[in-house]
Amino acid sequence: QLQLVESGGSLVQPGGSLRLSCAASGFSLDYYAIGWFRQAPGKERERIACISLDDGKTYYTDSVKGRFTISRDNAKNLVYLQMTSLKPEDTAVYYCAASRSVIRTTTGWGTCSLNSYDYWGQGTQVTVSS
């Protein structure tokens, strides 16, 4: 079965850090662009970070730039999202997604589509609160 599974979500205090993991089963993440998304209650899903398939460059939305880092461990078939300096507004369900597309998008994020991905995980909850 081909699937993505996120883990690492938790309750954390403002200013704290978390590392989310995205594990693939049934396929290799080497051949996919990997995006991290989040959806807060009452808000639309938001693309926050991505590793492009063609050149491995990373992209971030402005609200997380400088605080979040996306990386991949090909040997373990994992992608991480390291989150630091967390804020209450980072509270959301976080999802990873994988795209096999080699077409560079018009959004300036390499091959990372805004929302068209082949596989999605089920999400992990991150709550930032004191």
Defining key terms:
single chain; 130 residues; mainly beta; 45% strand
Helix content: under 10%
Radius of gyration: 14 Å
Quote the distance from N terminus to C terminus: 39 Å
Annotation, overall tally of beta strands: 11
What is the global morphology? globular
Mean pLDDT: 95
Could you name the ranges where pLDDT drops below 50 across 5 or more consecutive residues? none
Order of helices and strands: EEEEEEEEEEE
Structural class computed from helices and strand pairing: mainly beta
As a percent range, the share of strand residues is 35-45%
Q: Largest beta sheet, briefly?
A: 7 strands, mixed
Number of helices: 0
Question: What do these coordinates show?
Answer:
The protein is an all-beta fold and 130 residues long. 0% of the residues lie in helices and 45% in strands. It contains no helices and eleven strands. The protein has strands at 3-7, 11-12, 18-25, 33-39, 46-51, 58-60, 68-73, 78-83, 92-99, 119-120, 124-128. A hairpin with a 4-residue loop joins strand 7 (68-73) and strand 8 (78-83). The protein is globular. The mean pLDDT is 95.
Topology record:
Elements: E1 3-7, E2 11-12, E3 18-25, E4 33-39, E5 46-51, E6 58-60, E7 68-73, E8 78-83, E9 92-99, E10 119-120, E11 124-128
Parallel strand pairs: 2-11
Antiparallel strand pairs: 1-3, 3-8, 4-5, 4-9, 5-6, 7-8, 9-10, 9-11
Concise structural overview:
With 130 residues, the protein is mainly beta. It has strands at residues 3-7, 11-12, 18-25, 33-39, 46-51, 58-60, 68-73, 78-83, 92-99, 119-120, 124-128.
